[in-house]
Amino acid sequence: MFRKAKLLILGFLLFSVTCVAQEKLYFGQTEIGFLVGNSEEQWDGNRQRRFDVSFMTFHGAHITKNNVVGFSLGIDQYDEISVIPIALGWRGFLGKDGKPKIFGGLDVGGGSTILEKKVSDEWSKSWYEGGSLISPSVGISFPFKKDKTTLSFSFAYKRQQVSHYWGSLIQPGSQVVANDKLPPGYNSLTENNFLFRSFVFRAGLIF
Amino acid sequence: MKPLYSASSLLFLLSVLMFSSCVDEVNSSYTYHTMMPIYLEMSDVRARIITTEPAQPIDNPGKIYIYEDYLFINEPTKGIHILNNSNPANPINLSFIPIAGNVDMAVNGKILYADNYVDLLAFDLSNINNIKLVKRVEDVFTHMYTHATGEIITFRDTVITTESPNWGFEDGGGWLMNSSMSFSANYSAASQSYGTGGSMARFTLANLHLYAVDESTMRVFDVENPADPTFVKPIDLGWGIETIFPFQDKLFIGSNRGMHIYDASTPNSPTRMAVYEHVQACDPVVVNEDYAFVTLRNGNACWNGVNELQVIDIKDLYKPTLKKSYSMLNPHGLGLAGDFLYIAEGSHGLKSFNVSDVMNIDQNQLEFLTNQKSVDLIPGPKSLIVIGPDGVCQFDYSNPAKLKKLSCIQVTNPTKFY
Prior knowledge:
Number of strands of chain B: 32
Structural class of chain B: mainly beta
Largest interface: A-B, 43 and 47 residues
Largest sheet of chain B: 5 strands, antiparallel
Order of helices and strands of chain A: HEEEEEEEEEE
Oligomer: heterodimer
Helix content of chain A: under 10%
Strand order of the largest sheet of chain A: 1-2-3-4-5-7-8-10
CATH architecture of chain B: 7 Propeller
């Protein structure tokens, strides 16, 4: 899936290169900040505050003077789970050159849990699988004097799905009727689908 | 600067809004194998008319019985497939007899015996194209009754997905919902019982009597008049009974604790001669004049077992002694044809040995077909019939050192072995 996404991005970038002849084509944005959310309901009905680190870098190309498309890559921490968000994105700007600008953005893609270790022993296996990601954002950019680089502050909403699987393995010597509900070799499978909804505040640079 | 102020206040408002709705969700699902209890009224079961039906694809082969040029293949809990096997290289699926709850069968003359939950049925095979039910002996396999009201309980191996990982206690399943209880082929008639008229059979005929073993009892039927089987009596065997193998006047009964030897010279009242105890494991038995060959295997309900072939000296039937044991991979059924022993090694394959020297069986391994997964086998008059997860295969075994595959009947829903 990611390979497809990458190809799509590449294609899109190439397409943009051919049809845009602006003075500056490349657009980069790197930001770091935090994710805030409220955990799922605990046994007592309360929710716990989730407060974690978020890092994001966006690479794109201007398709018009105020519109940029590209892809974003980063790292988000959700409690113990590290997710690498990979998304296609858009940034749109409002304002005059040399002045603070308001910008909006949208990133749509998926999160990878490749940093999470797969645990496997004689009896069981457990692993994470990433899921879809959507993140609309708004922000303000402040240009530095005499420089093309601008300071940016983004506020975003981020919806990230992550699944955790724990399966007990069928022990040698057992006979099992084939079925399509369980992956082959598994006796049982517990699936936890997490939907993280977070508010994100990030600060960084646009260059 | 004014528009910027209004814009930032809008941003602030928006972020507060978003923040307040940022709550996580977790959905869990738990998928597991289990034995689902099914309750049936025997009166309903008996009301069903059993007639020969057109051939059906073999879904999941259970026990196999050779009758003349025919193969009877049991589909556990569903019925019996009848195949014309006059040419082992090309068996032809002829018909199907739907018998609910059927696990085992035996043929006596022209009469087929098959269990139908708690009843024993007798079918007339004189016309193979029109097999007729000639007798029903009611209420003999009574261990299936939940209580005395005619309701029986069976179990179906099922995969269930629940929202809560609480093992389904809410629907009263209790211990039945424990996945480790699942696929314990030896626990209930409805589970996926493998075995054949070979070493894993639970029905056997000897001296005009039919012996049927369940997990704790041997039931004796007088079948002197084949079409009119009569129930003689149950004999308590103790727990964990799995297989029965007749040899001459003796019955060798494999249990998960050992091998029972019964003297059946008085056919309607076999008496125990000896019990050979070993570690707990699953164990089919085959026997010749001097030795019993027992496979012990680790799996299913017989945990903590070992995987080995034991040779037991039975020259003195009252004092069986272990002669030697050989390490195996995961031995299931086995078959003896003269001096040659064939062992189904589960997912590991199929082995053949020359056992004329019982002290050196390991050095006389003739062949090991690692690509032939097998659970049980029968050395038949025309072919060696091997039952495995992928189907029922037949081999030319005129040269035991070089088995030649003749045919394989593919199954539609193969059982997986691990």
